[in-house]
Design goal:
Helix content: 40-55%
Largest sheet: 7 strands, antiparallel
Number of helices: 14
Order of helices and strands: EHEEHEHEHHEEHHEEHHEEHHHHH
Number of strands: 11
Distance between the termini: 35 Å
Amino acid sequence: MGVEEEFALADPVTRKAVLVADAVVEAAGRLAGEGHVVGEMSLAQLETVTGVCSDAYELRAEVRRLRLCAASAAREAGCLLVASGTVLLGEPGPPPILDKPRDHAIAARFGLLVDQQCTNACHVHVGVPDLQEAVQVVNHLRPWMPLLLAMTANSPFCGGRDTGHASWRTMLWDRWPTATPPPYLRSVDHYEEVVAALVDSGAAVDPAMLYWSVRPSRHVPTVEVRVADVQLGIEDTVAYALLVRALVAAALTDLRKGRPALPVEDTVLRAATWRAAHDGMSGQALTLPLPGPHRNVPAWQLTEALMGHVQGHLRKAGDFETVRRWLARLRRHGTGAAQQRAVYERTERLADVVDAMALPEPPHADATPNRKHEAICEGTVQPT
């Protein structure tokens, strides 16, 4: 498995987005190694890319290392590295995108869709044997995507206001024509036909612009789950990735035992995705992954069904307690979205929310580490 995390860059005084990704990526490359910290479309964000990890210990070490390298590089460039799915204050001004041919081609074709495109997600890759199984695993995973989104919602504020949603990143991202739940895929040939049609239609400039919430990767032999907002803390990211890996393992088991995936209607899946983006874990969730008529239940009730579905695979990998503790923290303190709002409710200052979401600096840094962020990340205190 491997994880990609996207972060926003903010001015330490105004807390508004700053367009310094080039400088931060260059500095981070010296610390983290080539290709582990890269630019995204917006110059106000960057992405960390772990190496391939086989267990929780390796993944935790890699996520921690890359976060510290990126935070240190941001400090060197005079800015904050913020673990939020959206820009809380201000919007990045021109030029908003990296100076690369592909990004310019996307901007020329999609126009205003590129605006406000500093959205920060967490992508989890899990290895699968071949494309045939990857396509079928996507079918098995797609009904679970809304619940995973609800668990990981971390973007309630954008551009200086409360959006009324737990994951506003999802709402911004869903403006793109290919940023949808995946269709039910009948075969590899059907998958390739869909990809070709999307590119031919102009909705994607190339196959890599297939922005489904879960998809077979085009460049590595994995299934890539793309539904989550970037997570506040290291343990949040690690536990979420382990849960995704267990879901993939359960899908492979069902596939090899001849159990078909539930063919949830695309429009219903999209509606459930909106509900998850709006409510997070504080509201209702449709029982899409379960047999029988779809109905609304408390999101935590569906989480219990999810844990029952993957418990054996989590225990086999030694990951059950890590995921259980993460879910217990979510119950106590809420998702990242709830924690952001808790900070704002006390201080009524979005600048304080930015500070609480800013990654701590490395122990050897001159400045004092962000103890408030560390405490929130570890779940030892509620944000105040």
